[in-house]
Amino acid sequence: MMRWWPGKPQGLSSTATSPWAAAFSWPCHGASPLSSTQHPPRYYGCGLVIPECLSSCRILDLGSGSGRDCYLLSQLVGEQGHVTGIDMTEGQVWHRPGPPLHPPSSPPTSFSSSCQVEVAKKHIAYHMEKFGYRKPNVEFFHGYMEKLGDAGLSDESYDIVISNCVINLAPDKGAVLREAFRVLKPGGEMYFSDVYASQRLSETIQQHRVLWGECLGGALYWRDLYSIAEEVGFSPPCLVTASPITIGDKELEDIIGDCRFVSATFRLFKVPAGSWARPAQVIYNGGIVGHERELVFDANFTFKEGEVVDVDAEMAAILQSSRFAEKFLIRAGGAAALQGCCCKGAKEKIRDPFQLLERLTAPGAGGTCGPPGCC
Description:
By secondary structure, this protein is α/β, with parallel strands linked by helices. 21% of the residues lie in helices and 20% in strands. It has 10 helices and 13 strands. It has helices spanning 68-77, 116-121, 124-131, 173-183, 203-206, 209-213, 222-232, 250-256, 313-321, 353-361, and strands at 58-62, 82-87, 138-142, 158-164, 184-197, 220-221, 238-245, 261-269, 280-284, 294-296, 302-304, 308-311, 328-332. The longest helix is centred in the middle third of the chain and has 11 residues, at 173-183. The protein is globular.
């Protein structure tokens, strides 16, 4: 597994929208940014991964890099919460002309600079002083997200696991999800953004140096995420949002062919056995900071304070077993044939990020977070 950290994105980014294009846009489902106090200023990723209802939570960031997301989260969880960052990058690879010097099967080229984890650690005292904390609520480890046990991370020790555009760089994505599932508490959530492909990638694409460096060569076929999540034990993935990735280089377009890429955010839950197993009616009680009147949970469900919403068994089990439980009144009811839409009647739940992207960009869509008529 390797990770390229150029001074600015290479390859696709010079001619097209790269996976980093969404990094500075704030998603409609997230908390408000606190970037004015953040160090270091450099940022890479395909979408800020900051879910709701974070007070006092224990959070693990896979591929934390220089710690920017961790410091955002460390303020949101509060002094009673805790954030752990883990990253395997030995050295930051600064921008240089041309593509990376080695294919993915070779060790990355390291230029003279600090380990990302060490960079992150240098700013702990600064942020704790800015936040007014008496002791640090954030820590950083060097290690692999496929082997969290090697870093001393124990079973059922976190409420939330996040990741920002790094799982595509893992050769064994099943191992990443298995480790995330292991360290999550019952009812815990994995909330992450990444790059996905419209089909399984050819070996040519996977081994292409520029495409790998741009986080496209390791992209997972989106349907395989659902299969892996089921095998690991997670609830079916909840698709939150999707953003386009375009390619403007003719040579790269010829290599990719009819394959398409999308940046998408998903949330997975570790639903305990015996949780709610039938459709239900739920009422959002409000009270989540930043979402007091309305909670856009994902592309299929939006909950308005005091409003009765029919949900399918999947969503009922998630709400009943997760940190969101005390924010909802859950009662038996709802259409038995409900497919998972927040509006009246049965509608197909949207799971395909490319389908969601088409709906979001369709004329008259109005930038909604979910399918027309659903949110």
